[in-house]
Amino acid sequence: MKAAVMRANKAPLAIENVEIDQPGPGEVLLRTVASGICHSDLHVIEGHLPVPPPCILGHEPAGIVEAVGEGVTGFAPGDPVIGCLTSWCGVCKFCTQGRPYLCPTQFAGRPFGAKPRLAAADGAPIGQFANLSSFAERMLCPERSLVKIRPEMPLDRASLIGCGVTTGLGAVLNTVHVPAGASVAVIGCGGVGLAAIQGARIVGASRIIAVDAQPWKFDLAKALGATDCVDAKAGDPVGAVQALTAGGVDFAFECIGLVPTVQQAVAMTGRGGTTVLVGVVPITEFVPIHAADLTLQEKKITGSYMGSNRFRFDMPKYVDFYLDGRLRLDEMISQRIELDGVNDAFERMRKGESARQVIVFE
Ligand SMILES: NC(=O)c1ccc[n+]([C@@H]2O[C@H](COP(=O)([O-])OP(=O)(O)OC[C@H]3O[C@@H](n4cnc5c(N)ncnc54)[C@H](O)[C@@H]3O)[C@@H](O)[C@H]2O)c1
Ligand SMILES: [Zn+2]
Ligand SMILES: [Zn+2]
């Protein structure tokens, strides 16, 4: 099958012919129909997240089941599914607490010494990213990385739910439970931030302020629910958000992953408010903040990982939201591309020229 392989960091992905194994116990083989391109894939390419090459990236997929392994009863050939990187074990502390997205086994892969799921034409193993690797025509996944969805859901739009939409929507709905009437700022209007804006609209936030350095995104942000937009390049975005909200928002969502924008998110958060860190700051970096802001104004800071999801529960609900018109996914797709165009897509992402880009397979 054809796949885009990361052979080295900071280099274009190589389009290669790759071998994929048959499904073993508990595994499902998929035909990939669509894969969104998330900034976390770019973080890996840039070396900001430690994933060793060779590896096939891509973790925002939708596809059709082709075959199932021994013991798989929940899926059958022909089922439409979404894949999610937070697979779970079901028995650990986090799974039994109702927080399966924190399950420490989620990147475990096949047992040590087993045949690799993915290999080069010469048999050399190729790493599978997050049990998914959706920049490939086929995917071999644990059944616990997949959820079946309604057949009427278009799979190019379903793929967005695999990561970005679940992350942004879930940060609002699951991680901090934004209440109706709250004021919200979302810093960064990529796939994740645009989903956070939609989450804020769906729960009935009063003020939804979109902040981005690319003003062309503001029409889109408004169409998806933003009430106000702040151009981060035109003056001080913190002062602009404070002026719009008499001192700061109840909830500020950082959806970029840069040190200065994390600091801005804390500063935009008003007294008693909550800063939610969704963007992934490169793991080698530290973020200095004024601790007294937290103490004297009782601000809170929390991270939000994969929208604090229980994806077998959340993703079919987000599909319902799309099909009943509450969740707008058509507008979020700025480019549909073929697998061969993946490197150009990352170039557009670096320059801020895209909203969500989706690879659509034949
Ligand atoms: N927490 C999680 O579980 C999780 C899951 C998925 C993605 N992420 C992370 O979320 C972040 C966003 O992902 P994405 O796919 O939406 O990225 P993206 O590249 O599509 O969007 C980023 C946006 O930030 C804007 N931006 C960049 N620099 C800016 C600045 N200085 N000021 C204002 N705006 C600026 C860009 O114009 C763009 O609109 C990434 O760090 C990604 O790794 C986290
Ligand atoms: Zn992602
Ligand atoms: Zn677990």
CA-to-CA gap between the ends? 12 Å
**Ligands bound to this protein structure:** nicotinamide-adenine-dinucleotide, zinc ion
Sheet with most strands: 7 strands, mixed
* Mean pLDDT, all residues: 97
**Could you tell me the number of beta strands?**
18
Shape: globular
> Helical region count?
11
Name the beta content range: 25-35%
C-alpha-based Rg, rounded: 20 Å
Structural class: alpha/beta
Low-confidence stretches: none
How does this structure look, described?
Helices cover 27% and strands 26% of the residues. It is an alpha/beta fold and 362 residues long. It has eleven helices and 18 strands. Helix 4 packs parallel to helix 5 (191-203) and helix 7 (237-244) runs parallel beside helix 8. Strand 14 (249-254), helix 8 (259-268) and strand 15 (269-277) form a beta-alpha-beta unit. The chain is globular and about 60 Å long. The longest helix has 13 residues, at 191-203. Nicotinamide-adenine-dinucleotide binds next to helix 1, helix 4, helix 5 and strand 12.
How would you sum up this structure in a few lines?
With 362 residues, this protein is an alpha/beta fold. 27% of the residues lie in helices and 26% in strands. The chain contains eleven helices and 18 strands.
